[in-house]
Amino acid sequence: MRRPSASRVRTHHAVSPWLFLLPGLAVVATFSLYPFLTTVHKAFTDARTLTPGTWVGTANFRAMLDDEQFWTALRNSALYVALVVPFTVLLPLLLALLVHKQLPGVAFFRSAFYTPVVASVVVVALIWGWMLDDRGLVNALLHTLGAGPVGFLGNAWLLLLSAMALTVWKGLGYYMVIYLAALANVPRELHEAAAVDGAGALRRFVSVTVPAVRSTMVLVGALSSVAAFKVFSEVYLLAGPTGGPAGQDTTLVMLVQRTGTGLNGRVGYASALSLVIFVIALLLMLLVLRADRKEDL
Amino acid sequence: MRRTPAWEKTLRYLLMLAVLAVTVGPFLWQLSTSFKGTTEDIYTSPPRFLPEHPTLHNYREVARIIPVWDYALNSLKVAAASVVTNLVGASMAGYALARLRFRGRKAAGIAFVMALLVPLESIVIAQFTMVRDLHLNNTLVAVALPGAVGALNVLLMRNAFAAVPREIEEAAVIDGATAWQRFLRIGLPSVRGTLAVVAIFAFMGAWDDFLWPLIVLSDSDRFTLTVGLDYLHGTFTQNPRLVAAGTVIAVAPLVVMFACLQRYFFRGAGEGAVKG
């Protein structure tokens, strides 16, 4: 219930809210909303880097259907979602459960696990590139065990899988923090009651923890699906600007960057690609978030 | 409360050590590589984890090949600007959305949510065209501008302000404090944790950003550290020691900063982040 006193007193000038909002709204409108509108517009033109272009209707979208690179990129981005998301939903939850319990030194582990998040994707990609090198750490360890060498960075599929592993690894700490915040709201009594009833650890995980953090799992699933679909840096850095052997590892955003930039960049076509990415990402998010609601009924 | 049995404690510590090896190990391996001299074999199997004769040679060499300290300074400028603009812009907007009543508040809130939904990756080309039309391409200002006030930070601040009890503020209203005074004296001191989170996110986001500076910057003397590292890697792939030294330069400041601020971070992340 609101107290009537404050609402009767004049709390501020009519313009002051807008002065408060001015910097934020200006930046967001100029650098997110306006570029989005121009992207939608350019998607229907044949604009190039230095020419504004003319209206071409849906020609860019029709061109996509015949563009082999587009289908390769779409396949890679879709595979990225399918293979990365299950791990980014589950592993960070297990990690959060591991560091949730107050034990001496646990705060150190918690922040140490966050290190890959803090580091730039460029840094971690270079580190992984060196570790996965034909003569790098991983192959040296494999050799010691009498296996390998595995050419992680020479084969298009292994490259893509390595980039996925890198994405999962880098996201562990980030999603762990989200889960920790959710776990803080799970009543302790639930767990203890289940323990008293003789439920084992696995049983308690499935029937107490998972239902309690399910909406967070869905949120993490939505966030990581969209992020995975828009993957750029990991693949660009591990596979190189051209996207690995014969461009087989190109993702959608890499294709946008490659076609849309440079002196003669096909801005119109790149904008159409961007629009496709936006629509698919949005659908993906709605789909995942919807899955949550349906189960609630 | 249930006491943790000894075997469970042991298991937990063992698991945490294993995860530590996986998450932090690669960074230590890189650190070790960066200290290994030109004559030391870095390809031994089994791998040698400690350098035989630790040397700073690779760091001097990186600085000779690329102006790595200038790049670091460029990154620092962008990151510092981003922290300031995000703290100011996001806290002001968040305060208005959470605490002031006015027509159009809902619409303003929706504008930020929509901005959050527009993936940066799908508008970089349009952003670049715009920045070029403003003759700002190839400048650090252009690198900093799009992230100057993050929509997510505005929403984080809004949630944090909304969680502050109203009573104190209502008393201040009756005492005649203006909106600005209430924001500065009552609002901001109550949301320090979230301010720390926003500052850390802004610094990390700017320092680590790659795609946008890669597109905006074309002159190699204006590169930020991430773009410079990519360039170093492209040119000197054959010498992992040099790349290792470069990456250590790029990651060390962040790790130190995060280690100092992690207390506020984990507290603040619980305070505002997921309450939305």
Write the layout of secondary structure elements.
The complex is a heterodimer of chains A (297) and B (276).
Chain A: H1 4-8, H2 16-42, H3 59-65, H4 68-100, H5 106-113, H6 115-118, H7 121-131, H8 137-144, H9 156-183, H10 188-196, H11 201-212, H12 214-229, H13 233-239, H14 252-260, H15 267-296
Helix pairs in contact in A: 2-15, 4-9, 4-12, 4-14, 7-13, 9-12, 9-13, 10-11, 12-15, 14-15
Chain B: H1 6-34, H2 57-65, H3 68-99, H4 105-117, H5 120-133, H6 140-144, H7 151-162, H8 166-174, H9 179-190, H10 192-208, H11 211-216, H12 225-235, H13 240-273
Helix pairs in contact in B: 1-13, 2-13, 3-7, 3-10, 3-12, 4-7, 7-10, 8-9, 10-13, 12-13
Q: What integer is the average pLDDT of chain B?
A: 87
Q: Radius of gyration of chain B, rounded?
A: 23 Å
Please report the total strand number of chain B as a whole number.
0
What name does CATH use for the topology of the domain at 72-249 in chain A? MetI-like fold
Flag low-confidence runs of chain A. 1-8
> Largest protein interface?
A-B, 102 and 99 residues
Give the C-level CATH assignment of the domain at 72-249 in chain A.
Answer: Mainly Alpha
Calculate the terminal CA-CA distance of chain A, rounded to whole Å. Answer: 30 Å
What's the CATH C level of the largest domain in chain B? Mainly Alpha
Q: What value does the Rg of chain A take, in angstroms?
A: 24 Å
Number of contiguous helices of chain A:
15
Q: How much of the residues of chain A is beta strand, in percent?
A: under 5%
CATH homologous superfamily identity of the domain at 72-249 in chain A: MetI-like
Family (chain A): Belongs to the binding-protein-dependent transport system permease family.
Membrane topology (chain A): Multi-pass membrane protein
Subcellular location (chain A): Cell membrane
Protein name (chain A): ABC transporter permease
